User: What shape does this take?
Amino acid sequence: MKQCLSEFLNYLSVERGLAKNTLTAYEHDLVSYREYLKDAMGLTGFEAVQRDHVTGYMQHQKSSGLSTTSICRSLAAIRTFHRFLVRENFSKEDPVDLIDTPRTWKRVPAVLTQAEIDAMIKAAQGRGWQVERDRAILELFYASGLRVSELVGLKVENVNVKMGFVRCIGKGSKERLIPVGGKAVEAVEKYCSSGRLKVLKGRSSADLFITRLGKKMSRQSAWKIIKFYAHKAGIKKTIKPHTLRHTFATHLLEHGADLRSVQEMLGHSDISTTQIYTHVDRERLRSVHQQFHPRG
Assistant: This one.
């Protein structure tokens, strides 16, 4: 069973080029699945898995308190895995073929208002290289809709300040170019020509956003910066790693951007993923109607 799982993860990495974080998620879900089949069902090989084993595992997850969203994600990994096993002749049949994905309500992601975004960026004021870096992060994050991992993975050469574009390598090693506005470009230019040089003190680094030691910033550090300035701006909403990304997409659609353009900028392979932001806009319209209509 370990060998089959190892072969599958190697396939995802080499042939499909999935990112490290995605591979880790697949491995986590499938190791838990393998342990259940081994310990609870007494199976020694994936070729013996039946439909009831898979549905039993889903029921086990539900009994353990996992959300429907988590179960769906796990089932997607299991489904892809069993298709691989059949294709590579490790198994004769796919036990997941006729299993339906649990229905889930699409949750509207939390977003910030324009006033809240302005307050966050305004909070990043003062002297010091860290403030320059943090302001550049906030401006670029909101201007581009990058994932946190993509933001901290940016190299200096990835930002074309003259043309106002960011070159990003996203999930599946897919490259995309994202236009960014003048305020973001200005903040990045100031950070690169001042604060960043002060930290490096003559040393070189290809990474755009660095720590006080001149090292590449981690995703956790970037997230802490976002949460810090949200708190400083007096924002009470729960801030998550994707909050500014959600806000970027929502504000574009609210101001008339077409869905396909937003999809391309976000790097979504399937437009159905981007369509969640149309739900956000509908919720905004609903709240406006309820607030101002005489019979709202």
Observations:
- The radius of gyration is 23 Å.
- The chain has two domains: 2-87, 114-291.
- The longest strand covers residues 165-169.
